[in-house]
Amino acid sequence: MNETAGHLPRLVSLDAALEREFEQAVRGAADLAVRVAFGVLRRREDAEDVAQEAFTRACPKFRDLREPEQFRGWIVRVTWRLAIDRWRADRRRETREQRAADEAGSRTVEDDAVAAERSALLWKAVDELPEKLRAVIILSSLQGHDVREVAQLLEIPEGTVKSRLFLARAALAERLTCLANDSTRR
Amino acid sequence: MSCERFHAALAAHAAGGDLDAATARHLGDCAACRALLEAQHGVLAELDAELGRTLSIAASPDFVARIAQATSETRSHSPRWGFPAPLLAGLGVAAVVLLAVWVRQPVVQDQGPAAAFRPFDKLRGVPSTVEGRLKAEATQPVERSTARATPPSTARVASAGVASTPVASGRVPPVRVPPARVASGFSRKAVAQSDPPVIVEASRALALQRLRELNAQGRLDGKALPPAVTPETALAELTVAPLAVADISIPDVEIVNRPPTAPQRQ
Fold this sequence. Notes:
The complex is a heterodimer of chains A (186) and B (266).
Chain A lengths: L1 H40 L2 H15 L9 H37 L9 H14 L3 H11 L5 H8 L3 H28 L1
Helix pairs in contact in A: 1-2, 1-3, 2-3, 4-7, 5-7, 6-7
Chain B lengths: L3 H11 L6 H9 L1 H24 L8 H14 L8 H20 L14 H6 L5 H9 L16 E2 L31 H7 L4 E2 L1 H16 L13 H10 L26
Antiparallel strand pairs in B: 1-2
Helix pairs in contact in B: 1-3
């Protein structure tokens, strides 16, 4: 019985050590996950909900994700996927709500400030990008994330990151110019 | 000259790409395209600033605590960093089903002359202690001496619980005993056929009968028990008894201590 009692504390401490390790990993990747989600959803509550969901999914898999870079990359990819899914669902819902609001004549576009309108234009252009280009643009805009870091997070070659980044910026330059011209004409 | 065909090249140049010769010449001639290129540089710079500002958001101070609480609640309802509960439940059910099938599977016995000389079949169900063997033999049905090929020098054992007839001339007559208790789902015939007959020598049958009587009286203890019989020794006991071979006499052959002579013809 003493031998059994002597084994149990080791098992408990191993689990506790893993919990502490997971908590440290969460602290190290919390801001990153929230920023990735916010880049898609642009609402703090929604972004944190999505990031929390990603970490909850990571918990049972943490034994295979104990390498910090591996964990961060996994969190970024899962958060991105969850955020995109939620964004599409919100768009479908907002489209229905907007249609209903238009019919009711309650649009308030004229009330938006110039800066907010400008910001909305910029993000509209980003949202219209293909998903792969959008991911690269958002991740490369995060502080401290160069091409090498983005390649590690997305598990793609650096050359692919560079080419996608180039294509994304070229598409945005063209699209934003059109949008800017359309807004000045109105 | 239409400038639209240069817009894509201008956008690529604004994004950091090289400028081809034709576009470069056109830029030198077209002020509108130069203005467009300038505007594209401006919007990209504005985009970089907007992205950098928006994406510098930090998680709420209680975000990590919420994660810890959510994950601890999840772990309390599932195995810790192990297999998910549904998988464990499925494995448990599968193990129970396999065990039930294995336990209920009837033992298939060959019913032929060779069955009588298969000691391991008998020993497979024999417990290590004599007392356990007595109990095991008490539940085994005994077959009558039929036309089955059995060595004439052996005799069948009488099961416990039946009054035995007096032994005469070293032979224990076979006795019919009630069949053993049958587990649910099995027929008595199936049990009788699955239990192999116990074949022992006459002297040993007498000893076993005596041990049963002592056990029934509660007088059997460890000191009275004979030493335990291992499968190897039991096999040796079963196979040691030599066959009784009648002497062979060859007529007209005389073994004498004299030189051989020519055989006499009759």
